[in-house]
C-alpha cells in the first residue's frame, strides 16, 4: 500500500527579515477572485497584518510599494487622505475614518517566516 503523501506546507507570505523593523510590506496573495492585498508590519519579533484597504473609501494605504508608515514611523498612514492607524490593532486614531479600523489578517511566525494563520478564529 503506498504511503500517503505528506501535505505541502502552505507558502509563507514573506520572511520576517523581508520587513525592516518598524516598517511594513505589501503582499498580493492568491489569484483571481481569491486575490487579497495584505500589509504586514513589524515591531521587533512581532508582526501585525491587515487587509490593505482603507476603511474610509477603500483605497490601498501605500503611496508607493511598501510605503505605509507615517513620517515619524509611529503609525500606518493612508496615502489618500492621511488617516493614521495604530500599528498594534489597526484603529484609526486621526483622519476621516477616526474610530474605525483596518481589517485584521491572522498571521503567525514560524521558522522565521510569516504565514497566514488558518487556526485563528
Ligand atoms: S481613503 Fe484613506 S483616509 Fe481617505
Automatic annotation (TrEMBL):
Keywords: 2Fe-2S, Iron, Iron-sulfur, Metal-binding. InterPro entries: Rieske_2Fe-2S, Rieske_2Fe-2S_sf. Residues 11-116 form the Rieske domain. GO terms for molecular function: 2 iron, 2 sulfur cluster binding; metal ion binding. Transmembrane segments: none annotated. It holds the Pfam family Rieske. Coiled coil: none annotated. PANTHER family: PTHR40261, RIESKE DOMAIN-CONTAINING PROTEIN. This is Nitrite reductase/ring-hydroxylating ferredoxin subunit. It comes from Nitrospirillum amazonense.
